[in-house]
Amino acid sequence: MTPDTVLLAHHPLLLAVPAFVPAIAITVVVLVIARRDRIAEARETAAQETAAPTVQELDR
Q1: What tens digit of pLDDT does each residue of 15-42 get?
Q2: What is the per-residue pLDDT for 16?
Q3: CA distances (Å), origin 59, targets 5, 51, 53, 54, 55
Q4: First to last CA, the chain
C-alpha cells in the first residue's frame, strides 16, 4: 500500500443507524401506546367492578 492510498471504508454501523433509528422509534411509540391502553383498560374494569352491583348480586 502506498502512502497516498486513501481508504474509503466506513464502519457498517454508521450506515445502519439511519435505517434502525426510525424502526426503533416506531417500536417504542407502539409499546408506549399499548401500555397506556392496558393501564386505562385496567382502570375502567376496576371502576366498573366497584361502581354498582349487578342484577345477579341483587337477586341473592
Answers
A1: 888 888 999 999 999 999 999 999 999 9
A2: 82
A3: 91, 17, 10, 9, 6
A4: 93
Burial pattern 32-56, b for ≥16 Cβ within 10 A else e, equals: eeeeeeeeeeeeeeeeeeeeeeeee
39 vs 22: CA distance, rounded Å:
26
48: amino acid identity, one letter: Q
Residue with cell 374494569: 45
Residue whose entry in the numeric block shows the C-alpha cell 422509534: 25
Query: Residue 29 has which C-alpha cell?
Result: 411509540
Alpha helices in 1-60 (DSSP H): 12-51, 55-59
- DSSP-derived letter for residue 4 is T
